[in-house]
């Protein structure tokens, strides 16, 4: 592995850390709004999903280390869940409030996946840093 390849590993892991950080923030937003109510379906919070994209090196498309970026954050197409709660302050004239179609279990699994991916990329950076330091030490001998 050449020195430039090692720096590409840093770049790839750093970009993945940034992407997973966005994913964690998006999941946190979804969880925070999971039980919010609205008086109309249009005003109901829509859960968000992060779409990732690999950034391919145009000069060498077969390169093993490729950065990742957040391509977009999209709203879920799931329809809000109407709940009959006539005493709720946001109930409409028919007594319904609308809640987002968010599965807390799925969001927690998504959070765990993002967290593990984040941790794995931190380990890659730490290991790469150690290899780079050892390489520099060998060069000093």
Question: How would you characterize the overall build of this protein?
Answer:
With 141 residues, this protein is of the alpha+beta class. The chain has helices at 3-32, 104-140, and strands at residues 48-54, 68-75, 81-84, 96-99. The strands form two sheets. A two-stranded antiparallel ribbon has the order 1-2. Strands 3-4 form a two-stranded antiparallel sheet. The longest helix is centred in the last third of the chain and has 37 residues, at 104-140.
SSE topology sketch:
Layout: H1 3-32, E1 48-54, E2 68-75, E3 81-84, E4 96-99, H2 104-140
Antiparallel strand pairs: 1-2, 3-4
Helix pairs in contact: 1-2
Share of helix among residues? 40-55%
Question: What's the tally of helices?
Answer: 2
Principal-axis shape equals elongated
Overall structural domain count: 1
Tell me the series of helices and strands, N- to C-terminal: HEEEEH
Distance between the termini: 20 Å
Extended strand count: 4
Radius of gyration over all CA atoms, rounded: 22 Å
Mean pLDDT equals 89
Question: Ranges with pLDDT <50 over ≥5 residues?
Answer: none
